[in-house]
Write a structure and sequence with these properties.
mainly alpha; about 0% strand; flat
C-alpha cells in the first residue's frame, strides 16, 4: 500500500516536471535546461520528446525498480527529492512570470541588452 502511494506520487511529480521542462524549452530554448541529455535531445527531436525521454523516462525507471524490489525507504527519499524539486519549480515559474511581465512592459522598439542567453528570448518575442 505504501509503495503504491509513494510510486504514484513520484510519477505525478515526474509528469509535472516533464510538462514544465518542455514548456520552458519551448519558451526559452534548449540552453535553459541544465540536464545535458534533455538539452541535446531538444535540439535533435524537439522539446516534448526530449522532456519525455530525459525527465519522465528516468522517473518511471527508478520508480518501477524501487517498487518491484520493494525498497520503500529509497522510494520515500526519491519522493522527498522530487517534492523539493517541485517547490523549486513553483518558485522558478513565479520568476518566469515576473520576467515576462517586466519584458512585456517595454515599448515596441526598445529591447533589453542582448546577452548570449537573452538572444533566443528576444527573437522569440519578435516572432509573435
Amino acid at each position: 500500500m505504501v509503495l503504491s502511494i509513494l510510486g504514484g506520487l513520484n510519477l505525478l511529480l515526474g509528469i509535472y516536471d516533464t510538462y514544465l521542462t518542455q514548456r520552458r524549452i519551448k519558451l526559452f530554448g534548449p540552453w535553459i535546461e541544465l540536464n545535458w541529455l534533455v538539452r541535446e535531445l531538444a535540439t535533435q527531436t524537439g522539446p516534448t520528446l526530449a522532456a519525455i525521454i530525459g525527465v519522465l523516462g528516468p522517473v518511471v525507471a527508478w520508480t518501477a525498480g524501487l517498487v518491484y524490489f520493494k525498497f520503500p525507504v529509497f522510494l520515500a527519499l526519491l519522493v522527498g527529492i522530487n517534492l523539493k524539486r517541485f517547490e523549486m519549480q513553483l518558485a522558478s515559474t513565479e520568476l518566469e512570470q515576473k520576467f515576462r511581465l517586466e519584458s512585456a512592459s517595454l515599448p515596441d522598439g526598445e529591447l533589453t541588452p542582448q546577452s548570449s542567453r537573452s538572444k533566443f528570448y528576444v527573437n522569440h518575442q519578435r516572432k509573435r
